[in-house]
């Protein structure tokens, strides 16, 4: 049985104005792939002697679909978080825990004990969500705990910057 996880997608960059910034990548690699497929299909279509057949119409339709996908991917560039002091990309992870572990998790968050939280067994249907932000160079780690309610996951703590890494 799949559980609906209604997670707030804002990564809390407002919580770290001096250390975390958001960048938008210029070119999405998928746009290049779709453009290449469109060009190959167009070349194949052009080499056919009879372009008015049903096969030719399907081929030109595929060329147009691939070209449109390439344009959509090009203009929908992905956003990334960067740890400003080192320039390292920040990744986000989500871990789910049983509601019974809430008090333990709150205690470990207050202590800054990341290791103890990560050693706890996860539970995909759990009512507690731990979101982590970690820079690739491991110089920045932040955690936030949310609890499931009828409306989805509601943050129970602010983002907490950890002194130790994951």
Give structural notes.
- The protein has helices spanning 29-46, 54-75, 102-111, 114-119; strands at residues 20-24, 79-83, 88-97, 128-135, 141-149, 152-155, 160-161.
- With 166 residues, the chain is α+β, with helices and mostly antiparallel strands.
- Residues 1-9 have low confidence and may be disordered.
- The chain is built from four helices and seven strands, in the order βααββααββββ.
- It folds into two domains: 13-20 and 86-161, no CATH class; 29-75.
- The radius of gyration is 23 Å and the shape is elongated.
In brief:
With 166 residues, the chain is α+β, with helices and mostly antiparallel strands.
Helix fraction bin: 25-40%
Number of strands: 7
Number of domains: 2
SS-derived structural category: alpha+beta
The best one-word shape is elongated
Helical segment count: 4
Radius of gyration: 23 Å
SSE topology sketch:
Blueprint: E1 20-24, H1 29-46, H2 54-75, E2 79-83, E3 88-97, H3 102-111, H4 114-119, E4 128-135, E5 141-149, E6 152-155, E7 160-161
Antiparallel strand pairs: 1-2, 2-3, 3-4, 4-5, 5-6, 5-7
Helix pairs in contact: 1-2
What descriptors fit this protein?
single chain; 166 residues; alpha+beta; 7-stranded antiparallel β-sheet; 4 helices; 7 strands; disordered N terminus
